[in-house]
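## Example record

The block below lists the input lines for one assembly entry, exactly as stored, with component labels intact.
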Amino acid sequence: MSTSIIGKLEALHPLPDKDKKLLHAVVGRGRTLKSGEDIVSEGDHTDIVHVIIEGHGYRYKTLADGKRQIIGYLVPGDFCDLYGFLLDKMDHGMAARTQCQIAELTEEHILMLTSRPALARALWWSELVNAAILREWLVNMGRRSPSARVAHILCELLVRLQVVGQATADGFKLELSQAELGDTVGLTTVSVNRALQRLRGSKLIVQAGREITIPDVAALKRFAAFDPSYLHFRQDREDRP
Amino acid sequence: MSTSIIGKLEALHPLPDKDKKLLHAVVGRGRTLKSGEDIVSEGDHTDIVHVIIEGHGYRYKTLADGKRQIIGYLVPGDFCDLYGFLLDKMDHGMAARTQCQIAELTEEHILMLTSRPALARALWWSELVNAAILREWLVNMGRRSPSARVAHILCELLVRLQVVGQATADGFKLELSQAELGDTVGLTTVSVNRALQRLRGSKLIVQAGREITIPDVAALKRFAAFDPSYLHFRQDREDRP
DNA sequence: CGGCGCGTTGAGGCTTCTCAATAGGTGTGG
DNA sequence: CCACACCTATTGAGAAGCCTCAACGCGCCG
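Predicted structure tokens for the full assembly:
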């Protein structure tokens, strides 16, 4: 199931069939990681590039006092450490949040992929989007209310998961605990819980356990001041003249 | 004075003399921007790559309600939008904080530079560092106390400005108002002011207007939990076996 | 001299955090 | 099958801290 990878890259840049086949061949089946395992640990050096085929993970940093900050989500199709072999040690860790299928590509694989112009461009784009997401998260933490922060993350997940076929038009399964949401948006578990309650109270979301339904997507986006253009998906670009 | 550019890139990756000469020739003198002007505005498309030769700036995003979040500092040697011509619109703006000398490189210039392996690698590195800084800022906002946030920013500026010869071993000129510091770390002006007072009170910094002196750099770094490895400078790498 | 940007200070309100306890769900071992 | 440990979600109460509002001083500039 490397279709999510192709889907994700094609959301950024169109790919010839040949490139899709190459991608499919190179990625293969992948290795299975258990939930909670590190894909790459903080401070590790890695020669290989990890790609999420199936499952969810996150990037994180740990502080001396044990606090943790989540600095990115990994969803199917994400290249975790495209640049990893350039660095001698990773400045952050990556962990599997659910059971994951992970492809491990060598530098030769990457060179093979990046020798194709369309693929190289798509991968380059995906790195630009990663940086854009970091910038948007910074805005989220710095300048939005707790409820809006949580709402913004939910909006982003909705869109990102839709691209890889893991969300419907109005909902998805949230693969995160409230503690992990808090480590993402800079709040405590208690505050995240109350923020979610407020969102439920104002009917912006409906929750059944980890299943999130968004009755009025436009309303939630408005509340969160969510503007998907930072994700730089092609459809956003083509919507405009 | 494109020495800062060379200094900055060489801090990441060694460059042959030939490449330095090329860089020098391509960058030239640059255009002068007045303090407060936008280098590139939010939503703009730009075909050219802007490089800071002299002066200080920042990246920012503005929210609908007028709040602003600063999402990066631009110091001499920084390539503002290396990837800009790929995007059809910038997802954030860049502004000059002081009077600036800005070089404007065309796509041909960039292709000329990136055809040199060492230069290409250095530029690639600089983008990796930009992303690493964003991740560290996320940790800063999410999980550190107000004083530690401000202290961390000061530590980062000390190190980054040292690389381009704009800081001494224990101090530099802070080209930011307290309001701008607040827009960086997610605090109000009042809170930034009080955070700085606490830092002064505990003798971690000495201020004479915008001139910052750090009597005990190690102490400030300890207080801020500042680990410069995320900046990926060569000296850090070579310090270790 | 007046306006303006910036740093500083004070007081009060509000929100988040901390601490603590409870309940539901899951998985394990007896 | 039950007891138990553990994780997660939820709730309450109090303390602490940040934000809002407001005022003032200072230096700079026209």
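The longest strand of chain A covers residues 68-74. Chain A touches chain B at residues 59, 61, 63-64, 67-69, 71-72, 83, 86-89, 91-92, 121, 124-125, 127-128, 130-132, 134-139, 141-144, 183-186, 225, 229-230, 232, 237 (CB under 8 Å).
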